[in-house]
Amino acid sequence: MTSIVWLAQRAPSSTVFADSDEVVHTESVEAAMSNWERDANGVLVADPRGLGVSRDVFAALTQHIAADSLVVVAGSETDDVARSAAEFGAHNILLDHELTRRHVQRAVGFAATYALRHAAAQLEQLEQLAHLDPLTEVLNRRGLERALTEEQARARRSGEHVGAILIDGDDFKSVNDTFGHDRGDTVLHEIAERLRTTIRPSDRIGRLGGDEFLVLLPDTRHAEALEVAERLRRTIAHTPVALPADDVVTTVSLAVVPVAHDDAIGEILQRAHEALATCKTSGKNTVVGTGRVEDIAGVQLPPSHELCDAAGFSVVRHPIVRLADGEIVGHELLSRGPTGLLESPRDLFRYCREKRILPDVDIACLRSCLSALDAWTPPGRVHVNVFPHTLASLDVSILLDVLAPTAREHDLIIELSEQQFAGDMTRFAEKIDALREAGIDIAIDDVGFGRSSLEAFVMLEPRVLKICPGYVHGCAETVARQRALERIVRLAEAGECTLIAEGVESQRDLECVRRLGIGEAQGYLWGEPVPC
């Protein structure tokens, strides 16, 4: 059904519009515009003869209504209406003798098509702007996440390598303190421009916030990425940035990390920040790289089939405490790798990604955690961790075979980390429904770490939200963190979720999260994880 506003002195003839058209007749320009604005896909047909001076009518109409959404009726090709309509940009002009249903509908169809195309072009432009940092005009965090997904998909098809470089300004706070934030913005814009002119057109550059940038390097091996990083470092340090008051010599520290085909941007940044911390303590204005585990000389690693069988794995547990009375209401079970270089979960799972055995090893970790319950009966809930990549890539029946027997005996919850979400959340929905039917609930871990919390909250309908430790640690001294925690509390209340503050390490932080209305907590305040 076409929604049409008829602006004319007389009501339209029944022969002009189809019975299916929704036609509103008005003799007022203001009323016509008001009715037209109620329907974004509507069309205004104007026959202004008898309504006053044509120029004034079209001046009022075209100020608010796109020419593509306007159909004009004129007496002849040379009368005032036709001339004024053409002058103000209207191109759908019908003569009085053409005023038939067929001609009106054709003109209306053209106008609606043009309007939709114009709207689509505007939406595309807005979509592009939504992925750019307004200060430096490079990608923002959202744009980087989309670029990462695109480059990983291309790398999976071609078998190419992808590298990433995290770039962080050295002592940039002193630039702001000395010259002011406006001049600091000028320096950031210049850094972005130097990065842009040094990398290839196919590389992606984005600003994460503050003085941090990330460069994605498609079809680039680790050694090549190190060379690019060194070239970027020299380009930025070589020439001072000219400011009105003075020239500023600025330097950056850079961390180079390889990107696995299923890495989320949070995982890349975590590895890069760890490497960058070393870079900062070694004198700044340097490049540090994190190579693959098996590239370390003399390393003896277990074969992949042993890792998939959880050979040598161990399990630790960490309590979850109810803040109202201090009672333990659950435990999180965590895997530890075989003794040696892969004992740390971070190194173990990084190595498994490189070997492309992460889902199989993740299942092995689940089996080892749940087998610990054979000799130990925990009070309350049992939390175990599953990589979103595992949930997305494996048939849900495999997870059900592992988890369902335990769910029949315990209140079982699987934790999915927001850090590792990538792609469309809807791909998880059916599998999570199947898990719920088997009595297995969902928790979203690291809430607040990235930008996926709200989408995950809406799509996955979790029973539990676990707040990222970065928001909790030191919250008693930081008003901004307290405000962020208050927003997360309201989110949890809206979804009727249990809320856990993870990373509580001091009595002051404990009192702060309790005061903010957070019901449960976890952290080193109650000791380190202990073996099961």
Percent of residues in helical segments?
A: 40-55%
CA distance, first residue to last residue: 67 Å
| Spatial ordering of strands, largest sheet | 13-14-15-16-17-18-19-20
Biggest β-sheet description: 8 strands, mixed, barrel
Rg result: 31 Å
Strand content: 15-25%
Query: What's the architecture of the largest domain, going by CATH?
Result: Alpha-Beta Barrel
- Tell me, briefly, the overall form: globular
Task: Note poorly predicted spans.
Answer: 293-299
- The CATH first-level class of the largest domain comes to Alpha Beta
Question: Would you spell out the secondary-structure blueprint of this structure?
Answer:
Layout: E1 3-8, E2 22-26, H1 29-37, E3 43-47, H2 54-62, E4 70-74, H3 80-87, E5 93-95, H4 101-130, H5 141-158, E6 162-169, H6 172-179, H7 181-198, E7 204-209, E8 212-218, H8 222-238, E9 241-242, E10 247-248, E11 252-259, H9 265-281, E12 287-289, H10 304-308, E13 314-322, E14 328-336, H11 345-355, H12 358-371, E15 381-385, H13 388-393, H14 396-407, E16 412-417, H15 426-437, E17 440-447, H16 453-460, E18 464-467, H17 469-472, H18 479-494, E19 498-502, H19 507-515, E20 520-522, E21 530-531
Parallel strand pairs: 1-2, 1-3, 3-4, 4-5, 11-12, 14-15, 15-16, 16-17, 17-18, 18-19, 19-20
Antiparallel strand pairs: 6-8, 6-11, 7-8, 9-10, 13-14, 13-20, 13-21
3D architecture notes:
The protein has 532 residues and is of the alpha/beta class. It is built from 19 helices and 21 strands. The protein is 43% helix and 21% strand. It has an eight-stranded mixed barrel, surrounded by six helices. Strand 7 (204-209) and strand 8 form a beta hairpin. Helix 6 (172-179) crosses helix 7, helix 7 packs across helix 8 (222-238) and helix 12 packs parallel to helix 14. The chain starts with a strand and ends with a strand.
